[in-house]
Structure formats: C-alpha cells, structure tokens
Design brief:
With about 400 residues, the protein is an alpha/beta fold. The chain contains 14 helices and 12 strands. The strands form 3 sheets. Strands 2-8-7-6-5-3-4 form a 7-stranded mixed beta sheet, sandwiched between helices. Strand 5, helix 7 and strand 6 form a beta-alpha-beta unit. The termini are far apart. The model has no long low-confidence stretch (mean pLDDT about 95). The structure holds pyridoxal-5'-phosphate. Pyridoxal-5'-phosphate (PLP) binds next to helix 4.
Amino acid sequence: MRNAKSTSKLPNVGTTIFTEMSAMAQAHGALNMSQGFPDFQPPKPLQAAVVAAMAKGRNQYAPMAGDIRLREWIAADAERRSGACFHPDTEVTIGAGASSLIFATIQALIHPGDEVMVLTPCYDLYEPAVELAGGRLVCVPLQADTHRLDLEAMKASWTESIRMVVINVPNNPTGSTWSREDLHGLAELVEGTNALVLSDEVYGPMHHDGRDVLSVTHEPRLRERAVVFASFGKILHCTGWKIGYATAPAALTGEIRKVHQYDVFSTGAPFQAGIEAFLNSDAGATHLSELAPFYQSKRDRLIEGLKGSRWQVSPAEGGYFQLLGYGAFDERDDRTATADWCSRAEGLALIPLSPFYPEGENDSKLVRICFAKNNDTIDQGIQRLLKISNG
Ligand SMILES: Cc1ncc(COP(=O)(O)O)c(C=O)c1O
C-alpha cells in the first residue's frame, strides 16, 4: 500500500472557509460571528420532545424517506404556505441536513457534460457537487446593488446544455430575497427548456420587514421542475442535529432517493420524532410564527449599533446573515482583512465574501457576519466592529 496513489477528484477543493475561520477564531480566542449557527439553544419543549422520543425507544433506523408523521407535517406546511401539494409517501424526503439532499439531488440528476447555472456569490456546496457529477458551472452574478436575481443576465448566459438552475432565497451570503415578478421571470426563463430548478430555501420563513415568505412553489409553472430544500437545523436553532428535507415531484424524488438510500439512508430517528411532536404542538406553531421577527430584531440591533460608523450596511432582507462593506476604511482584500481582524487582541471572526465566487476572486470589499447570536454576543461584536473601523 505504500506505493498506492490516488488522484483527487476535487483537486481545487480545500477546507471550507467556515471551518478555516472557526479554527482561526479558536486559535486567537476571537469572538466567532463567522459560521452560520446560533449561540443559543433550541426551544426547551423541542429538546424535551427529543429526549421523550429516545425514552420511548425511537432509537433505531428511521424509514429511508423519513418519519412518516414528520413528512405529513412537511406536506401540510407546504400546502398551507404556497398551496403546493406534495404526497408524503412519494414527494417528501428527510435527510442529514439539507446539504445531504442537495448533494444527492445533484448526483442523481446531473450527467457528465450538463451545465448548472449558479448565481454568485453562492453557497460553497454547489460547485464541488456539480464537479463530482461531471457537470460544469455557469456562473451569473446577482444584481450588484440588490443581490437579487438578474433575469436579463441569466437569459444572456443561457445555453442548450443547462440542465439545472440553482436558486437560494433567502440568500447566503447576501441576505437577499425575491419578488413574485422574479418568480414569474424565472418560470418564463426555463419554460420550454430541459432545466430543473434546485431551490435552496433553508432560511425559508426568515423574511424581514414584512416581506412575503415566497417559495419557488408559489409559482405553479415551476412546481413540476423544482426540488425545494429546507433545514430544521436553521429554523429550530439546532444545526448540529442535521435534519433537513427535500420536496419534489414523485419522478424526481424517486431519482434523488436512489442516491440518498445508499449515501445517508436514514437519519436521526429520535430527532425526527421530537421535531414532529414539537411542530404539531402550540409551542412549535408559536416558534415558527415568531421566527422572522426574532431574527429581524437581532439584525436591527446590529445595524443600529453600527449607525454612524464607516461600515457600509444595506439591511438583509431575509436569513440570519448581514453583509458589511469595509471599503471606506480598509483597502486590503477580504481574506487578508478578515484574517487580520481575527488575530487582533480583541479579535472578531467574520467570513470573507470571495470564497462564494466559484469563478475566482472578487474585490467587493464585503464581509459576512452571522447575527444568529445572543444579544450580548451581538453587542460585543458591535464594539469590536467599531474598533476595527476606527483603525
Ligand atoms: C444556503 C445553505 N444551504 C444549505 C445549508 C446546509 O443546511 P443543513 O445544515 O441543513 O445541511 C446551509 C448551511 O449553512 C446554507 O447556508
């Protein structure tokens, strides 16, 4: 075995920027507002429901497609929100976080030579998944000012080989959302083509300032060609449990499950049972209805604290990330700048934006901060941000 050699299938892929920045934060004792997870706990009744499920013996494999009662809740929730009907048996699949199902979907549906349109900046999972499937990315920038879909640019970059368009709303890292006109425009763009829509909606209900919570399934013309992803980790403050789901028409779901059953097979039985019990309780309904205002107040606290400073802030429309522009006080590229800010005596870990551009470096002078944090953490973050911008 000493001479055994392997050739990397992903030669350009290293450790993700999230792991890199969290490790750097730990090494320097910096405040970590980089990676996207809360520093508070899931609701107590949810924790209790998971513990109860364990005590009741829900500790062996869950069904491959997921706990049926949780799938029924997911189908009912989708119908309540957008009128879309998914059959829990054949059109809803629960996986190890949304990530595992996004990965399975791309492996199942993308063939060598297929092209996949992604909108940049974009979440870093899509590129390696497409590469492993033998596909090729077609990168189209989001609009420079609003970070919303640029339908004209998407049309201009369209090719016959595009088999999938990846959308992520609310968007990580930019916090942008979309409008009904965007949904209509997307439907028109893909009409008559062979392209599927992969809609990554893991920050789903977190739309701020009273915006409509719009899913790709609100547009009936897109339902037949869309795979939609959601994450209980994100909406229930339990990212470490890694429970997410995908909804898609039966034919697409069948193909996705062919990969899922040999990759993840099934995931966290007591977590699924506990989540189902919580979501079907009054406490669960209240949690979901309060989620958007809960995160909006954290976003507002951060923005208020930076008022009058040299950080440039355009309020996130959704999700739990805020972009911060530093061009007014620092000329360095984003990787150099964030590494320096993290290593200072009163350090702060943020995420540079350039890793979200698969086509190469960019010079937007923007960084991403996660405000899914206790108010004390946000206040400490504000103090450190002000020290950074004051030089
Ligand atoms: C846009 C986006 N998609 C997918 C995921 C992964 O979700 P999960 O933790 O459920 O796998 C994340 C997590 O940060 C994300 O930001």
